[in-house]
């Protein structure tokens, strides 16, 4: 035994630490597996917390340095977590959110930490009363939201007329009552955790909220540095409410200049323009482009031959509807009267033919011209879209039978126009639903709205196979303004979103590039004309004449008003309207460059002076503006508007002070991004 013990002792002495560890594991195998299972079950039960804890522990990459204090990845994670949690809770309070992640103009996590640091420097603290008041406000919002949803479910039809208003009103009632119930708050908090935020205890939430409020106080300190006095408010009122009267003329590239520019543009330049301005081609709503053929009614008016019998028949047919003096009668009663009595009664009931002859002739001429236009349209349609008639089967069999006739070839627009000179063909620009009437003008029909209705449905359909094809009607339609007949073709649709390549928007990108380069070529001429007017070398009218433009004079306008110019569509429509008819559209329309024109007039201080040449890329033009007069607002009305202008000016001043303070704060704190400098912790 003694020898065996000595050998066993020697063998154990020769074992390494690793050998002895595994020997211990084997002896205590059951205990080891129990401990291991406990650890594994713990990690599964708290996966999120475990991952976050161990991940944060190892997060040692520096991101920022604020006043020699290094901010690590884990600090960024904690800051973003606080912002997310607090903003989620504040969402039910109708309270503006001060911090975010850089979206919608809100401050990001860097500013959040920076303003916390500034709050510490300023000695800002959050008292228990302030923290309690903020928690109470959150409680009111959460409770009001729950009560409003319950009222909504119990309402007739399962829906309130205005859920948001019910929510807001309930919150105000709770505020007035200063409602508070600790047990109810903890219930709502736990419910909130289950649906939105997990892993945050009430105590941890209070710490996060205190940090948030502290940073918010530092922001308020920066904004409240702005001060304004009553004189500044009155000056702002004068500046904004002052009326200005102006004259202007336009310089637009002519067709020749556009052709010269277009000839030099390559596909590579179009592609580069598309890539450089990608966001401008992103659609928020569907766009449509369509080709069109048009036949105007007015060209057939000279061909409409009217006889006296035609005029009398039209008068008799329409006199009860159009020319009655106000009495409704049954003309069948006239059969019981003698011819003399009938004539006497007609004179009392209707306006005589001679008094309304011009109107009757006009209506009848329009009706006849429309009939002639429709006959011509049928003939033109057969030229554009010939019917394919199947060849007749041969009478017998044999090699000498004639071959079947080839289908007729569609005529081109040029061939149709050669036979019918009044025929018009073209294609529209790309337009959205709100732009349809302006872009198509007298070529608009109600079918356009059906295209957009189908396009909107297709835009929501993710399955391409379920999208419905949008087609045009293969028949002539009367335009909305009853100017003529239109036949649409080659309909193209673009759905909302960003195009993946230049091809779908190549024509649009090309047109934009032509417009921009044509304006570049026109700049020198526009600036030279404006300078010549300012220097007295040319009068305003002489410069406009040289530019081949017409001077437009405006009345006194508000700063945010609009310049009204004659509407050509309304002028065309007026020709077809009978006397006494309500106009179908206003005689004028706002000039698309109104804001630029009035803005330039407001920048000119002295009456009678001319400003610079103003470029309008959207409308492809330069404007030269002269200020004709100023009209100051009534000082008596200032009292009614004083609060409004005080609030607006204070907000603008606060925004300016805050941005200046923030810029100074960044410089003073020495904020340094390691991400850009390549520095490391060491």
Instruction: State the end-to-end distance.
Output: 62 Å
- Number of helical regions: 25
Rg over C-alpha atoms, rounded to the nearest angstrom: 40 Å
Q: Report the count of strand segments.
A: 13
Mean pLDDT: 81
What portion of residues belong to β-strands?
5-15%
Q: What class do helices, strands and sheet pairing give?
A: alpha+beta
Overview of the molecule:
With 682 residues, this protein is α+β, with helices and mostly antiparallel strands. 54% of the residues lie in helices and 11% in strands. The strands form four sheets. The protein has a four-stranded antiparallel beta sheet with strand order 8-3-12-11. Strands 5-4-7-6 form a four-stranded antiparallel beta sheet. Strand 11 and strand 12 form a beta hairpin. Helix 5 packs across helix 6, helix 11 crosses helix 24 and helix 13 packs across helix 20. The protein is extended.
Looking at this protein, list some descriptive labels.
682 residues; 25 helices; 13 strands; 11% strand; disordered C terminus
What's the layout of helices and strands?
Elements: H1 2-14, H2 17-27, H3 29-45, H4 47-57, E1 62-66, E2 69-72, H5 73-90, H6 109-122, H7 128-154, H8 163-177, H9 182-195, H10 202-223, H11 230-241, E3 243-251, H12 255-263, H13 267-276, E4 287-296, H14 308-322, H15 339-349, H16 353-384, H17 413-419, E5 424-427, H18 436-440, H19 447-460, E6 477-478, E7 484-494, H20 506-534, H21 540-546, E8 552-553, E9 564-566, H22 568-576, E10 588-590, H23 594-603, E11 610-616, E12 621-631, H24 638-669, E13 672-673, H25 674-677
Antiparallel strand pairs: 1-2, 1-13, 3-8, 3-12, 4-5, 4-7, 6-7, 9-10, 11-12
């Amino acid at each position: 035994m003694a020898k065996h013990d000595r050998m066993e002792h020697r063998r154990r002495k020769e074992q390494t630490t690793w050998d002895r560890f595994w020997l211990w594991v084997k002896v205590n195998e059951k205990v080891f597996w129990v401990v291991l299972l406990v650890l594994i079950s713990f990690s599964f039960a708290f996966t999120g917390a475990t991952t976050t804890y161990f991940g944060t522990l190892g997060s040692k990459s520096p991101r920022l340095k604020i006043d020699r204090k290094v901010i690590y990845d884990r600090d960024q994670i904690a800051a973003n977590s606080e912002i997310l949690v607090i903003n989620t809770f504040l969402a039910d309070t109708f309270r503006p959110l001060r911090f975010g992640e850089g979206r919608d103009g809100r401050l990001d996590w860097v500013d959040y930490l920076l303003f916390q640091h500034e709050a510490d420097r300023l000695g800002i603290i959050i008292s228990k009363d302030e923290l309690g008041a903020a928690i109470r406000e959150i409680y009111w919002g959460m409770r009001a939201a729950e009560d409003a949803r319950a009222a909504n479910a119990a309402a007739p039809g399962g829906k309130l007329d205005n859920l948001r208003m019910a929510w807001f009103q309930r919150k105000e009632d709770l505020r007035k009552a200063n409602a508070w119930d600790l047990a109810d708050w903890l219930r709502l908090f736990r419910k909130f955790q289950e649906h939105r935020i997990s892993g945050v205890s009430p105590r941890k939430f209070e710490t996060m909220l205190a940090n948030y409020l502290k940073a918010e106080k530092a922001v308020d300190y920066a904004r409240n540095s702005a001060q304004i006095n009553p004189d500044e408010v009155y000056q702002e009122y004068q500046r904004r409410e002052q009326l200005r009267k102006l004259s202007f003329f336009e310089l637009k590239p002519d067709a020749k200049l556009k052709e010269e520019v277009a000839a030099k543009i390559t596909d590579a330049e179009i592609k580069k323009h598309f890539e450089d301005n990608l966001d401008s081609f992103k659609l928020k709503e569907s766009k449509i482009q369509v080709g069109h053929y048009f036949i105007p009614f007015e060209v057939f008016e000279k061909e409409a031959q009217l006889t006296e019998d035609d005029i009398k028949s039209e008068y008799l047919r329409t006199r009860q509807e159009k020319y009655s003096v106000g009495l409704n009668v049954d003309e069948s009663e006239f059969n019981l009267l003698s011819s003399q009595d009938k004539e006497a009664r007609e004179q009392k009931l209707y306006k005589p033919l001679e008094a309304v002859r011009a109107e009757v002739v006009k209506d009848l001429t329009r009706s006849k011209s429309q009939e002639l236009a429709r006959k011509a349209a049928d003939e033109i349609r057969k030229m554009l879209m010939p019917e394919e008639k199947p060849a007749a089967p041969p009478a017998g069999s044999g090699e000498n039978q004639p071959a079947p006739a080839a289908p007729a070839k569609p005529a081109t627009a040029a061939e149709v126009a050669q036979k019918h000179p009044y025929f018009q063909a073209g294609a529209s620009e790309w337009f959205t639903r709100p732009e349809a009437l302006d872009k198509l003008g007298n070529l608009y029909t109600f079918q356009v709205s059906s295209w957009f209705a189908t396009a909107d449905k297709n835009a929501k359909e993710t399955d391409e196979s379920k999208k419905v094809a949008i087609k045009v009607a293969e028949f002539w339609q009367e335009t909305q303004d009853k100017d003529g007949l239109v036949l649409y073709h080659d309909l193209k649709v673009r759905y909302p979103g960003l195009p993946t390549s230049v091809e779908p928007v190549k024509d649009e990108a090309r047109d934009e590039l032509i417009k921009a380069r044509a304006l570049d070529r026109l700049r020198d001429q526009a600036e030279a004309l404006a300078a010549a007017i300012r220097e007295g070398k040319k009068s305003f009218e002489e410069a406009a004449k040289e530019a081949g433009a017409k001077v437009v004079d405006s009345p006194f306008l508000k700063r945010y008003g609009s310049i009204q110019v004659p509407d050509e569509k309304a002028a065309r429509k007026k020709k077809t309207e009978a006397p006494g008819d309500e106009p179908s559209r206003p005689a004028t329309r706002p000039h698309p460059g109104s804001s630029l024109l009035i803005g330039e007039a407001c920048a000119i201080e002295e009456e009678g002076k001319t400003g610079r040449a103003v470029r309008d890329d959207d409308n492809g033009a330069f404007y030269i503006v002269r200020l004709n007069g100023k009209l100051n607002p009534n000082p008596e009305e200032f009292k009614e508007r004083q609060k409004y202008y005080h609030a607006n000016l204070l907000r603008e001043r606060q925004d300016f002070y805050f941005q200046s303070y923030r810029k100074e704060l960044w410089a003073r704190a020495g904020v340094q991004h390691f991400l850009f400098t390549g520095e490391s912790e060491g």
